Each structure stands twice: as C-alpha cells, then as structure tokens.
Write the structure tokens for this entry.
Amino acid sequence: MHGLAFDIAHLLAGGMVVVSFLLLYQVRLFALINVFALHSLVLVLAVGWQATIQEAHHLYVTAGIALIFKAILIPTALHRIVRRLGIHRTLEVVGGVGLNMLAGAALVALAILVMLPVTTTADVLAREDLAFALAVVLLGLWLMVIRHNAVSLVIGFMSLENGLVLAAAGARGMPLAVEISIAFSVLIALIVIGVFLFRIRERFDSVDMQAMDSFREGRRR
Amino acid sequence: MNALGFLAVTALLIVPASATVVLMLAPGYRFGARLNVSAALLSLLAAITLLGWRPEANLYLRVDDFNIYLIVLNNLVSFTTSVFSASYIAHELETGRLTPAYLRFYHAMYQALLFAMNLALLANNIGLLWVAIELATLITVLMVGLYRTRAALEAAWKYFILGSLGIALALFGTILVYLAAQPVVGEGLPAMAWDQLLAKADAFEPALLNLAFVFLLLGYGTKAGLVPLHAWLPDAHAEGPTPISAVLSGLLLNVALYAVLRFKMLMSANSHALAPGPLMVGLGLLSLLFAGLMLYRRGDIKRLFAYSSIEHMGIITFAFGMGGPLANFAGLLHMTMHSLTKSAIFFTVGHIAQAKGTQRISTIRGLTVTHPVLGWGLVAGVIAIAGMPPFGVFTSEFLVVSSTFARQPLLALPLALGLLLAFGTLLWRLHGMAFGKPDSGPVAPVQASILPMLTHLALVLIAGIWLPGPLVAWFKNVAALLG
C-alpha cells in the first residue's frame, strides 16, 4: 500500500469521526440535518476512495447509493418534514455541550482501545478504518441517547449506520456490501416515511419522545 | 432425489414471495385470506419434503440437521396461524377496526414475513441471514402499527428504534466475523458461508471473534427479547393484531435465537475464543427473573403473555448457555414446545379479546362459564406454558432444572425461583379469568376457529407423554452439534 493512498483513507475516515462530533452539539434542527448531510458526503468520499484503492468496483455502487439517498434525498425530506410540522425550534440536549464532548472523546478512546489490540492480524488499513467506524457507531448511539426529539433520533441512527457502511467498505473483499447498503437504505427510507406518514406530531402533539414515553400501560383507557 | 430437495427449497422462498405480490394486487379479503392459507400450506408441504430429500448446500442456502426442524416448525405454525387469522380478521372487519385496504396490506405482509423467516433459516451466509432478519423486522414493525391507534403507533415506533439498533449492532458483529474469517478462508463469499466458517473456525483470530460475539449477542438478543433489550416486546405484542403476536412469539423470537446459536457454534469451534456460555447463562437468568417479577403487575392479557415469552426465551438462552448434550437437548425441546404452546395461547387470547371487546384482565372473568371452549382452551394453554405435567413444556423445563442441579447447583436456585414466580403468577391470573364470577359483560359467542389451537395443544400434550424415537435421536444429534 503506498503512503498517500493510505493517508487519504485515514483522513476521510477520521473526518467522519470529526463530523460525528459536530453532530453532538448542534442545537438547531436544520443545522443538525445539514451536518448530517455533510457526514454522509464524507462517507461517500471515504467509500469511493476505498473502491479506488481496493479496485472493488461494487463499492462505487454503495457510494452512489449513499450519495443519492443519504446526502441528498433524506436531508431534503427531513427539511420538508421539519418545515411542514413546524418544529424548527432549538433542541434541548441532555447534559450540556461540554459534558457530551468529553463523553464523545471517551467513546473514541474506547473504540481505539477495543479495536486495535484485537485486529493485530488484519492489515493496517482495515484496522484503523474499523477503529474509526466503531467510534462513529458509538458516537451515533450516544447521539440517540442524549436527544429526545424524534427527528434527531433518526439522524443519530443514520450517522450510526454511516459508521457501519464505513466498516463494511473497509473490510477487504466483503461480499454483499451493496445488498446491505440497499437494505439499510430501505430501512431508513421507511423510518423517514414513518415520521412523516404516521404524523407523529398529529398523534402525539409533539415529536418529543418523552411525551410518547409517558404514555404507557396503566394510564391508558 | 436432490432435484426434489432443490425444488422444495425454491418453493419455500418462491411461494411466499409470489403470494406477497398476488395478495398486494388482489382485491377482496375473503380471497386474500384463502390464498394466505393455501400459500402457507404449500410452504408447509415443501418444508416436509425437505425432511426426506435434502439438497446440497451452496454458498447462499443450506439445509442441515440444525435448521431443518426450525424450518418445519416455522412453516407449521405459520400455516395454523393463517387459519386462525382468517377467522380473526373476519371479526375485525365486522367491528370496523380494520378496513379492506388494510387487510390487503396485512395479508401481503404476512406472506412477506414468512418469506423473510424462511430465508433467515435457510441462509448459509451470515450476510444473507442479516438481510433476512432485517427484512423480518421491518415487516413486523409495519404489522404492529396496523391499527393506527395512538398506542399501536407508539409500540411500532419503539420497536422500530430498538429493532434497528439491534440490527445495526448485529451487522457490526457480522463484519467482524468476516474480518476474522478473511485471512483464513480467503476473500469473498466463502468467508461468509456457515459451513466454511465452521470448518475453519479454529484458525480464526480469537480476540476478534470474542468482540464479534458480544455485538452479535446484543444485536440478535434484542430481537429475541432478552432483558435488558426487551423493551419493545410487550408493547409490540399487545398493540399489534393477535395473529402477529402469535407469529412474533412463536417464530420470530426463535429465528433470532437461531442466529445467536449459530454464532455460538462458531465460538465453540474455536478453542482459544471466550466461552460464550456464561454470557448466555447470565442474560438468560436475568430475563427469566425480570419477566417473572414483571408478570405480577400486568393488567393487559396480551402483555401478560408477552412477558411470559421473555421468560421462556430466558430459559432457552440459559439452557443453551449451560451447554452439554442434556441442556442443549432441553433447550431445543423447549424452543419447540414454547413456540407451539405460546401461539396456541395467542389464538385463544385473540378470540377472547374479541368476545369481550377488551384486553384488560380485570374485565375478563369466568370464561369457562361464558365461553366454555375458549375458557378451557386458555386453561389448558396456561397450564402447559406454566410448566405443569402432562404437557411437553414440563418435560423440557424439568430437563433444564435437573441438568443444572447436577452440574451447577448454585445456578439452579435462581432458575427455580424464576420458574416458580412465573408459575404462581400465571396460575393466579388464570384463576380469575377462567373461574371468577362472570360479570355482565357481553357474552356473544364469536365464530372462533378452534382447530389451530387444538392442534397445537394436542401436539404439546403428545410430546409431554411420548416423544417419538426418531425425534429424540434427532434432538440428541443436534444437541451434540451445538457443543
């Protein structure tokens, strides 16, 4: 593997982790959606670069799907939903920005500490890619934990999923990468349609998950 | 002879897939219900054919000793459930809870779910397995939200978020397994095929496998409803249509557990990897005890039995975690018995909820007087699921407890405690529902099809009294395979 190719792959995967951090502290819904589009765009570049250096042409398909779906269609749809539902207000973040950034840094450290020792036999590229991918997955999980709003929950899940696609692209010669990314796209499309069609706001008066949670067995009927 | 096996495997996938398309387009719910039953019957016949004629494995699909019985069980229960569903759905249409348009969608999704589960069980490829389970998750989410009530939407949304999270974790685990296999097996599809993985598992990097198993256990464990990842399960069971509760409890949980077991086999095949047993024993006991405690306060009849499903998944996971021929045997038997009994209970509960117009336990009293068939059916089902002789669940629970006592007496204490808790609560709840003083609620008889329920209970009863020799031999064989 020659140095530059490796460095660029490293840069792009690391870029995804940085953008994941950006997601953590966005307090406006539109900004959150835009940063997510950026996250997907970096993923497209990372997967495209992997396709070039591994000479795995099916990965271009994966990158294409990510570009059309997650960098363009889904953010546009989410923008429309937010405008239509009239929820473009500031979001509350559990715990405050400083604490969340610290927690995020701890999660990245955890990802590296977990992944690097166990992958000593894998090649360097897959190894570092995997550590970054796990960091993105954990940060996505964390984003889902600290937000209550349904739209930011969806964005947290999608950023987590971007991490998974990064991991799949980094695993050399992994078959079914295209099929898996299609399956995920369908999943996400359904989530977004769900938010829209189920008209969560109409039914629950807000897209705040806590409002939905308070509604449980025992208090019903 | 292999050609017939190949045909049967193809039929298991093609029949539900094409039925989905036809049902999407076909108007009229009567026709839809009939087609649903016939398609399920065809799949069942194909599954039975596989018992005698087994095709050779390829890189995508494979029929072996382990999955064949789950395939037969899966198609048997889907067939009986489709019969139950036909009468259940007719009543829902009468009361106006569902419209014909939704019914069309419901029938199509039922077959699509059948397709996804068959694909997951037949898959010889960990990627394909993942795609199939993801598909099954999506379909059940849509089904759970079918009634479009506030509670149903909440249940569907919760299931969606937790289910997708589980699916995501499982995918990460799958990628890690591929990475562990790739240096040994080589790049591409063979490094994802079960048979290749199992044959060469000993040479895999153990640390990578350990990490993968943790992700896989958490991921597929979410789908199997193991505590602490169970939060979606009671809501999804309570708010969806009852046939779907029956399929969820009886089949989909088994499919998720099947995935965990496959990966457990992989772990056991590698002598340096972490022993997966203690993890599974821990999660199993936690689920059992938690569900045993939660059963006590349930006010909703479907939720009650949903928690009972968590309890039984706990017992099964515990048994496989203990490992060894006897415990594995008990686990396999319990998987079968639970699936048959729990779906029979949901058939009964579905008709009871329709007859009474409510799912609240406090308003369901004295069923044996007002609705003798349903009442006594519920009594038989609950006695069976609580683990009383002469039903088959007793046999398997007894085997789990006795084999644990013999090997790890300390672990048997929490196990027995959990079983007793669940036993007591279920019988106490049953007493009010079946023998309490009937109140002035509606006593209109429902046109129930009791045949599916009777078939299941009869099978469980027969298994409790006499297990056929070939079945025992087969269970023993698979138990040895599971390690």
Observations:
- Chain B has a mean pLDDT of 89.
- Chain B touches chain A through 48 residues (CB under 8 Å).
